[in-house]
Amino acid sequence: MQKGRAGRARKVLKSREQRAESREQKSEVRGQRSEVRGQRSEARRIPMSLKKFPRNVLLAFIILTVGITAAAQTKSRSWIRGVWDGTGYQVDDKSTWAMTLIAHRKTFSINYPSLSCGGHWQLISINASRARFREVLDHGQDKCSDKGNVLIQRLNRNQIVFLYSYPRTREISASAVLNRRLDVSINGFRPPRLP
Predict the structure, then answer these.
(1) Cα dihedral: 94, 98, 103, 104 (round 10)
(2) Is pLDDT at 67 greater than 60 in this prediction?
(3) What is the chain's alpha carbon radius of gyration, rounded to the nearest angstrom?
(4) Is the pLDDT of residue 141 over 70?
(5) Do 172 and 164 form a contact (C-beta atoms < 8 A)?
């Protein structure tokens, strides 16, 4: 009988230990949950350093950053401004022709006087030394290819390279070195309308 009591006592003791262990595990899980909740609420809180920081200073910083970015973008575009002249070379038939680019603000007018065609370039992208365009002709479409790809590469302050490829190709079909007209004032310059 004593063995039976001792066995039962061991079972009771084991079940008590198991319940206590289970309570500890549940308590640990609850602690982890509240810790996670605490981390979430901390993530939502504004850091004290920003609360103490005057809103005016923060607003001025944001405005200054936006202004500098806009100025940098304008500066990266300014290298192409002006009137550019050159002689184009057609790769496939080895012909040459005159061309004039007038770049003023966001307007890029192109004229091929010896081919009797011209139009404008739609800016695709530009950085400090390269610009990509889509050429859209508004006259002479029967003499010149329309909707071609144009890449302009800056060589120096007064020279750029013109590379042309037909629509849906990357193979260069025409090229030119264009020289900046130095007798044209850029400030207040208003480009004439091309025929």
Answers:
(1) -170
(2) no
(3) 36
(4) yes
(5) yes
How far is it, in rounded angstroms, from Cα 55 to Cα 63?
Answer: 12
Lowest-pLDDT range of 15-19, 51-55, 172-176: 51-55
Residues with Cβ within 8 Å of 172's Cβ and at least 6 positions away in sequence, in order, are 91, 163, 164, 165
Q: Which residue has the tokens 């850091």?
A: 47
Q: Which two tokens stand for residue 20?
A: 């206590």
> Does the global pTM surpass 0.70?
no
What CA–CA distance (Å, rounded) separates 135 from 115? 15
Counting Cβ atoms within 10 Å, is residue 130 exposed (0-12), middle (13-18) or buried (19+)? middle
Cα distance between residue 41 and residue 22, in whole Å: 29
Q: Quick one: pLDDT band at residue 24, thresholds 50, 70, 90?
A: confident
| Window from 58-62, 121-125, 142-146 with minimum mean pLDDT | 58-62
Q: Where are the alpha helices (DSSP H) in the chain?
A: 2-44, 48-52, 55-78
Output the CA torsion 111→116→122→128 (10° steps). -30
Q: How many whole angstroms separate alpha carbon 104 and alpha carbon 83?
A: 8
